[in-house]
Amino acid sequence: MSWAFLRDLLSGVNKYSTGIGRIWVAVVFIFRLLVYVAAAENIWKHEHDEFECNIKQPGCENVCFDHFFPVSHIRLWALQLIMVSTPSLLVVFHVAYRENREKRHNQKLYRNPGKIDGGLLCTYLISLILKTGLEIVFLVLFYKLYDGFKIPRLVKCDIKPCPNTVDCYISKPTEKMIFLYFLVATSSLCIILNLSELSYLIFKYSIKCYLKRHMKKQQ
Predict the structure, then answer these.
(1) Which end of the chain is more exposed for a tag (fewer CB within 10 A), N or C?
(2) 169: helix, coil or strand?
(3) Domain carrying residue 105
(4) What is the pLDDT of residue 2?
(5) What is the CATH number of the domain that holds 213?
(6) Where do the DSSP E strands lie in the chain?
């Protein structure tokens, strides 16, 4: 899978972000995207082939694997990365709209099309809320699908066509557990950064509006 588009998107968003937003971009790019491409993808690459049960009943291994791993961890992580980065497109599109509007009217309509104010501020806040919400949704999804943030060494399966309760073994459970904890930790860090940036922007522009009103009253 090519991640060039996501990398370019994050690089483009970085130009219009606040300081906290740039830290978020760095965390997503270095601690999530690069870790996924360089290491995590290979660990889950042959997870189905390396899933073994102590019986050779045709179909038993497949149904047990599907029961305990309804969605691959790594594919769900990839989907999470794509989904939490997509709201940033709203900001990029809004800046592009401002720039095209200036070209159409052939005059300077904004001090800086990429400055977070006015309508762009609302778009930026919406993107932060969406990113935070998606992060939380995926963490809950991980927890529900896999019955907690854990990778067991042994699972017991009694689903047909298995003739009785069979023991199935997951390959490299400790290694997978480490990466799962890393996934949860980086996702939680991104939630904290998004909420911090959201609070910072709301506080900053609330103070700005208050000072404007105070100046008008004095005049």
Answers:
(1) C
(2) strand
(3) 3-218
(4) 54
(5) 1.20.1440.80
(6) 52-53, 154-157, 166-169
